[in-house]
Amino acid sequence: MSESAPRKPLRPRLSTGVNGLDTVLLGGLIPAAVYIVQGSPGAGKTILANQVCFHRADLGEHSLYVTLLAESHDRMVEHLSTMSYFDAKQVPESVYYISAYSVLEQEGLEGILRLLTHERKTRGASLIVLDGLFVLEETVHTEAEFRKFVNNLSAFANLSGCTMLLLTNSARGPHSPEYTMVDGWIELGRQQMDYHSHRFFQVHKFRGSGFISGNHMTNISDEGIRVFPRLESSLGRVRGAATEKTTVSTGIASLDQMMGGGIRGGSTTLFVGPSGIGKTTLGLQFIAQSTPEEPGLIFSFYEGKDDLVDKAQSLGIDLEALIRDGTVEAIWQPATENTLDELGYELLEAVQRRGVKRLFLDGINAFQQSAEYPDRIRRFLAALTNVLHSEGVTVASSLVTEELMGVENRVQLGSISAAVQNILLLRYVEINSSTRRSISVVKVRSSAFDPAIREYFITDEGVVIGEQFQQADTTQTEHGHPRRIQGDS
After folding, report:
1. What is the CATH number of the domain that holds 150?
2. What's the pTM?
3. Domain interval for residue 59
C-alpha cells in the first residue's frame, strides 16, 4: 500500500492532572473503567489518587474518596495540605471523604457496594477512589467471593459512568482475579540500586488502549507526583520540519575556518578534553553570540552562574548583562544523584520556555552518570538531540576525559559520538619541558574541515588559535605515540 491506514481515534479520555501520567497513558484514563493502583506503603498511591481528585474538582466535577483503613481523614488531609494541588475549599463539596471501615465490619462486601451506590448518586461523583483494596482481600473467605465483588465493581462503574481507582498494598501477581477483571493495572514502586533508590511508575494493563510500556521514573514533591516518561519512548520519534541550511559561528573566527566556515545550524558540537583545558571557555564564547531574537541557554553541572559570570568576564564577555536582559539563561544542576529523564525534561522545558536557539550543555558526562541503566544512554541522547534539532537549537556540549596526557590517552565516546555531528579534541601536550594546549577537529558530519593539530591560547580576549604544530607526531604524546579517539562515525 502506498499510504498507511488511518489510525483509529483514541477513546475519550479523563485527564489525571499528574504531570507525565497522561503521556504514558496516551491521553489519560478511559472513563467508566476500573483501575488498580498498586504499591507498597509510601509509594505515593494516596498522593496520586488525591491529585486526580482535586484536578477533576478544578474541572467542575465531584469525587468520592472512600477509605477502608482505620486512619482518620483528618490525619490524611493534614498530610495532603502541604501539597500545592490541595484546595481546602473543595472539601467536602467537590472532594468528599468517607470511611467505610465500620460498614465493612458490619455489612461485609454487599454493604460496601450499597454505600458506593448511594454516595455516588448523592454526591454526583464521576470519580471514586477506594483506598484499601487489600483490606477487602483479607475479609473474604474465598477467591470466588472476592472475584464476584470485583466483577460487581466493574458492572457498577460501567452502568453509572463512574471511573474507579482501587488502591492496594497487595503484592499479588497478575493471575490474581482482581488484576484479570479490572480495566487497568498501574504500579508505583521504589527500586534499590547500590546505595540509592529511585521511584518508578509502570502500567501493566490498560484495556482499550495502547500505552508506553516499561518503567518510568517518578518523584514526589510539594506539587505531588510527577511521572517522567522515558524520553526515548515518548519523544524519540519527534521529527522537525525540514529547515533551511544555515551556518552558525562558534564565536571564534579561526575555529570557524577550521570547521569549514562554522557549524551547521541545529547540529550538536562536542568539546572533548581533560579538566581545565578550556572546554567551558569555548562554550562561553559560543553562547556569547546569542541575541534577543535567538536566545541562549547554559545548562551546567559543574559551575554555577556566579562562577560562569566571573570566567566570562576574564574573557572579555559580559555574561551578567546577557543574563540580566534575558538574552541568556544560566541553569545549574548539581552533578549528584539525578534522574536521567528528569534532567532531560528540565532541559527541554527550559529550551521551549524561551525559544532557545543556542545551548551550551556543560558536562554531558552527568547524563551518563545519571543513567540507572547504562544501556539506555545511546537511545536517550539520540532522542534528546533529535528533539533539540527539531526545535532549531544549535548545541555545544563538553565532555571531560580522565587522562591529562600520557602514552595511551584514548577518549571513549561510545554512544555519545553517534548523537553529535561535530567533535573537537582539546589536549595538553609537552614540548621542550613545557605544557601547551592543542585543538583539532576530528569530526564534522557532511562537511570538509581542517584536520590540522593547532596550538591555542586562552587570553583576556578569549581563545586565540595559532599555527599548526610542526611535529604533529611528537606533540600527540610525550613518547611520540599518536593518541586515538574511539567512537561511532
Report:
1. 3.40.50.300
2. 0.84
3. 21-229
